[in-house]
Fold each of these.
Amino acid sequence: MFAKKETGATRILPTHVAVIMDGNGRWAKKRHLPRTAGHAAGSKNFKDITRYANKIGIKYFTVYAFSTENWKRPAEEVKNIMNILRDYLKDVDNFKDENISMQFIGDLTKLDDDIRELIANAEEKSKNATGMHLNIALNYGGRDEIVHAVKKIAEEKIPIEEIDEQTITDHLYTKGQPDPDFIIRPSGEYRLSNFLIWQSAYAEYWFSDILWPDFKPKHFEKALSSFAGRNRRFGGIK
Ligand code: FPP
């Protein structure tokens, strides 16, 4: 995809960027702060980077906020992350001007009722926005998503000979969306951690040692420049 830079120049932008917001805990530890302060800083950065992505013309933006494995964390930390989410969702009217449509992906049935109501409200209020589409992955796991899709396919009794890759794609939480073409993971870890494992088959990756709360628009720009210089062959020859 080509998009206008603020300078007016044209550049190649990924259509769908996905981010693993990792490193909040280490960011806090470095400052002798509780982990909760790291998640608060991570949440603020999430809002800033989301706004920036929308401004420069990214069409789809997916963030990993809470994985199916994150329930293993101390109850206090889980509660804190859920409260950060509550605050964000209560503030959703303030994001109206940004023209971002919002969708939560993951198994939402495990969440508290009030959070589910806030999510439904945020999705409903933002559904007609014409700017960027934001997916927030919550109680999300890539394998869990595929199991969920397979169960739905079985439930719909789709004949075996009709099942192909598109059938799976069409039963994922991200149904109807282009696959992520660029996945960013800051914080010095080099793995996917069960994030969008079906959708990322041909994604490009960008890793860096920067901890998520320190990942600023200038780092995002550096990552985007790297993406723009890559030769994507999708298994063919170009
Ligand atoms: C990973 O860092 C971060 C999380 C598991 C939580 C991410 C949550 C937020 C940024 C806040 C909520 C988001 C929204 C959408 C409002 P880590 O704790 O694993 O860091 P560490 O690896 O340094 O310990």
Amino acid sequence: MKVMVVGGGGREHAIIKKLKESPEITGLYALPGNGGIAKDAVCVDIAAKDIDGLVAFALENSIGFAVVAPDDPLVLGAVDALEAAGIPCFGPRANAAIIEGSKVFSKNLMKKYAIPTAGYEVFSDVNRAEDYIIEQGVYPVVIKADGLALGKGVIIAENYEQAAAALKSIMEDKAFGESGNRVVIEEFLTGPEVSVLAFTDGKTVKPMISSMDHKRAQDGDNGLNTGGMGTIAPNPFYTPDMEKICMETIFLPTIKAMAAEGRVFKGCLYFGLMLTQNGPKVIEYNCRFGDPEAQVTLPLLESDLFTIMKATREGTLEQTEVKNSRGAACCVVMASDGYPAAYKTGYPVILPEKMNAEVYFAGVKLVEGKLLTSGGRVLGVTAKEETLREAIDEAYENARGIMFENAYYRRDIGKKALEAKN
Ligand code: AMP
Ligand code: GLY
């Protein structure tokens, strides 16, 4: 069967490498993919958000199954359009992808179904929002743009001035466009963060191994928020007891709530959790695999990914094995220095001949046979070992062998996790 994967970052590369292990798949296409993915799939120059283009390509090329990986096309209805054209898909329909597409929707869902999350209020008027923050007088306070904002729509304000500036930027200057028509103002929570990516067919939930992202640009969780600078799995804060509590109070209730709302969620649901003193709470939902969480969870997935993907669509996940391997993994993201603000690109990427790690390409392009940097996050280096300590050391050892001008990466991916273990 011919399979197409929509998207073109490190996450999509990890999905493609995993799908390559499936004997049933005879051809793999990436839309648009990137210069590094081109080694593993046929890259087609169609943007992930070009829904008509995706459908036309699938029909013209007898695609038997489509995996829609990024948030934008999911929220825009790529799965609905492909399915309407007769192409079976992995991923939620637009009416379920809204769980990520609108924070107002997801907060109201959690409130209605008593799923633990931070207390909040919703505002569409900037003056009312300011008044509320003054009345509350509690800092830090968390301000979130309602819609998609490239992972930058969350601001943690330490005082009134910062809060007012955030509200102005989101609601008046429209830093994230229409996504800022409404804001969620939320209670600030503390505790270790855990990402859990779970397969679901709308009835059954089967999680992959837990992971931990490192969102800030610099060591020690300093600097700007990024798409993610590295991940480790499993997350040591996520104990078997915690897993049980999350399944009973968060995962299953969420799936049931979506079904009860007539918004059956199929695909991969990402639970961004904070383990607070009062138990685990949802910080955010994503309607897809995380990036770079996929770059550690998929390498640790033992079962056949394609079989699982089909089961989520067909409603047979209960009978389908999702087996995670026992080891640990670490992904170090190598970025263009300056990311997530301004950075230079166009530099050759040189890989050592032998590596003991997987490289998942993100911001690269092929020009006359040469791999050049073309984005903020350039690639991720994932090592898989028996222990977390070994995986971290191995990932860094391999990252040191990869050369491109302006390369930048955090030196402390996994440090917090190791400290938790000791
Ligand atoms: P998001 O863009 O939704 O992933 O949020 C970015 C980061 O902001 C999260 O990973 C958390 O570290 C932080 N954050 C979001 N909401 C809260 C909250 N209510 N309390 C504390 N930190 C938060
Ligand atoms: N790494 C966080 C995300 O994919 O949203």
